[in-house]
Write a structure and sequence with these properties.
Blueprint: H1 3-23, E1 27-34, E2 43-50, E3 55-60, H2 69-75, H3 88-102, E4 106-109, H4 112-124, H5 129-140, E5 142-145, H6 146-154, E6 157-158, E7 163-164, H7 176-191
Parallel strand pairs: 1-4, 4-5
Antiparallel strand pairs: 1-2, 2-3, 6-7
Helix pairs in contact: 1-6, 1-7, 3-5, 4-5
Organism: Nocardiopsis flavescens
Domain Exonuclease: 26-195
Keywords: Exonuclease, Hydrolase, Nuclease
């Protein structure tokens, strides 16, 4: 099979996954903004959108660690903007309850490995046992990475990595809910592809 044939197959699979998600009334899109990229950084903003585009959550989170300067330059969030916001340990059990009541069974994330790691890290920093239970439940839901699917859809092959080049999120504005909306547009674009 030629590389072009392989790419067409992968593009079709990405389109099929996007169509399946958009047809799922219990699918959501999630995005986070964080204090940085490191192993102790935490979530300071989270957005969750239904696959129809309805906002479930657009929340800032109070963090006890400093926000990295480079991260703050990207998303524009400063420590003083988080003073009256809930802490992660208070917020996560509440949002898990909401997602559970809605019957959410699928989460789509643009760069899922990063956001899932940040959910785990933020929860690890919380002493609240309910937060840890909610973390296991959320991370246990079916999830997939729209960035990896979109890379296959675009088809820009990299010899050195033996994989498709990851694409920047088109239309993302570095707010959690704005990036959820941009991810929804990526899904809609991929879903239009017909085999």
């Amino acid at each position: 099979m030629s590389r072009r044939d392989t790419w067409k197959r992968h593009r079709g699979q990405a389109a099929q996954r996007a169509r399946k998600t958009l047809a799922n009334p219990n699918a959501v899109i999630l995005d986070t903004e964080t204090t940085g990229l490191g192993s102790t950084d935490q979530i300071l903003e989270i957005g969750i959108l239904t696959a129809r585009g309805d906002v479930i959550c657009d929340e800032r989170i109070k963090v006890d660690i400093p926000i990295g300067k480079s991260a703050s330059r990207i998303h524009g969030i400063r420590q003083d903007m988080l003073t009256d916001c809930p802490r992660w340990g208070e917020f996560l059990p509440w949002i898990w309850g909401d997602l559970s009541l809605r019957g959410v069974n699928e989460i789509v994330i643009y760069n899922a490995p990063f956001d899932r790691r940040m959910i785990a890290q933020s929860s690890a920093a919380s002493p609240d046992p309910e937060c840890h239970i909610s973390t296991k439940a959320i991370l246990g839901l079916d999830h997939w990475c729209a960035m990896h699917a979109y890379a296959a859809y675009v088809g820009d092959w990299q010899e050195w990595s033996g994989d498709y080049r990851w694409q920047r999120l088109p239309g993302g504005d570095h707010s959690a809910i704005g990036d959820c909306r941009a991810t929804l547009k990526v899904l809609q674009t991929m879903a239009q592809e017909r085999e």
